[in-house]
Amino acid sequence: MQQEVYIENLKCGGCAATITKGLSSIKGVDEVKVDVEKSLVSFSSEESLLSEIKEKLSKLGYPEVGDKNTIMHKAKSFVSCAVGRVNKED
């Protein structure tokens, strides 16, 4: 089933790379796509995995729009962004 989540703190391709890698590590999640301009993550998964996916996004620093976007989320997103940029260049 195709699903979408709008997220906070998405800035660039580095962020997108981290999100793609993180969500792809969840068994049952496929076809992860990140639209940086729209702050939208789309993926294919079972409905039952949605809460796990949202939790993973939040732990990476990209909470769903409407959830609390704390200083900790923002800090994590900067780290995730940097790691994603480094991994993207490898």
Oligomer: single chain
Estimate percent helicity.
40-55%
- pLDDT averaged over residues: 93
Radius of gyration: 12 Å
Q: Between the first and last Cα atoms, what is the distance in angstroms?
A: 32 Å
The residue ranges in which pLDDT falls below 50 over 5 or more consecutive positions are none
- Strand content bin: 15-25%
Overall structural class, as computed from helix and strand content, comes to: alpha+beta
The total count of strands amounts to: 3
Spatial order of strands in the largest sheet: 1-3-2
Q: In DSSP terms, counting alpha (H) and pi (I) runs of 4 or more, how many helices? A: 3
Dominant shape: globular
Largest beta-sheet details = 3 strands, antiparallel
Secondary-structure element series: EHEEHH
Walk me through what this model shows.
With 90 residues, this protein is of the alpha+beta class. It has 3 helices and 3 strands. Strands 1-3-2 form a 3-stranded antiparallel beta sheet, covered by helices on one side. The chain is globular and about 30 Å long. The N and C termini lie far apart (32 Å). InterPro entries: Heavy-metal-associated_CS, HMA_dom, HMA_dom_sf. Residues 1-65 form the HMA domain.
Key words describing this protein structure:
3 helices, alpha+beta, 90 residues, 18% strand, 3 strands
What's this, in brief?
The protein is an alpha+beta fold and 90 residues long. It has three helices and three strands; from the N terminus they run βαββαα.
